Amino acid sequence: RCVEAFYIYFHAGRVEEPYVSITKKRQMPKDGYSEEIEKEVGQAEGKLCTHRSAFSRASVIQAFLGSAPQLTLQLYICVLQQEVTVARSIFMVLSLLSIVYGALRCNILAIRIKYDDYDVRVKPAAYLCIFLWRSFEIATRVIVLVLFGSVLRIWVFLVVLLNFLGFCFYPWVLFWLSKSPFPENIEKELTRVGTTIVLCLLTFLYAGINMFCWSAVHVELSDPDLISKSQNWYRMTVYYIVRLMENAFLLLMWYIYRTDFYLYVCAPMLVLQLLIGYCMGIFFMLVFYQFCHPCKKLFSSSITEALLSCFKLLYFICQHHKSTLLTGKVAVKSPENTDEARGGSKTIDSQNRNIHQSVSSNA
């Protein structure tokens, strides 16, 4: 692909192409209106676009199935050997940049797939926000896993396995609940077994991405494109809340069971820095979706409105739980109150009878 892409690029424009295709894209709405623009795409440009999409997907695969485990392993070795060599630090920085670049390409791919009908132009500020967002999120996640694994080596396998299997089977559970037919239009030459293998590999990659950061591309097996094109703010909110709680729990376990090696490390300060670093990643994510997203004009609701609605829903659930508890307490106390009321009524009836008897005797 790489050699062919260079060959097409350097020979483009020298020979007249026999035919061109016309694509229609809509501009971002301005003052409530969006214009449709027609563009001629030559055969060479179409092949280059195909190669570019393939390179983007390959960078995502390489980042999360190659660089992410490599970065985790190198950092774990540094912790065990209690030193960071120059060569290993260079490799770790390159691995981190590779993961961040793969996550950035994943974000751009998700935007272009979801808004395929529009002419999407990503500004430099958006690239900067995505880079900072992914850098803080991935770096803190890797450090938390390494610290937890350095003191609880057996339990870290359970944490990784639960995360991986949970995200791997999540698309299949949604597909089973939707009761949709098995997708057959992925590739004409593939059999049913081949299609199943492709879908398993896709969910495998999806789980690998969500192991380290939020996946911008959501696998939906019931959709013909296998990707959900809706913006689900609630799913994103739940993911980051649960992930923050998980990171805090893993850091707490590391703080409790840390060895003598960490005596020269200010453990509370390190825990605070990692939690703040993860919150900084969430902050840049909010900035991106609120101000720098290239298709923010197409959102039905902004990220702030979605967060407010999520918090209102959580507040309503808490209030409903409190009201049920109070109702249960009142129901428990009510028999005693009824017994007291019955006792009081009996006393009043006896008093009325004594008064009636005294009045009759006087008469």
UniProtKB/TrEMBL annotation:
GO CC list? plasma membrane
Q: Which InterPro entries match?
A: XK-rel, XK-related_adapter
> Where is it localised?
Membrane
Q: What is this protein called?
A: XK-related protein
* Superkingdom per UniProt: Eukaryota
Protein family membership: Belongs to the XK family.
Where the protein is mainly located, per its record?
membrane
**Entry's transmembrane regions:** 86-104, 125-148, 154-177, 197-217, 237-257, 269-291
**How does the protein's chain sit in the membrane according to the entry?**
Multi-pass membrane protein
Q: What is the lineage of its organism?
A: Eukaryota, Metazoa, Chordata, Craniata, Vertebrata
* Pfam families given in the database record: XK-related
Q: Does the keyword Transmembrane helix apply?
A: yes
Keywords attached to this entry? Membrane, Transmembrane, Transmembrane helix
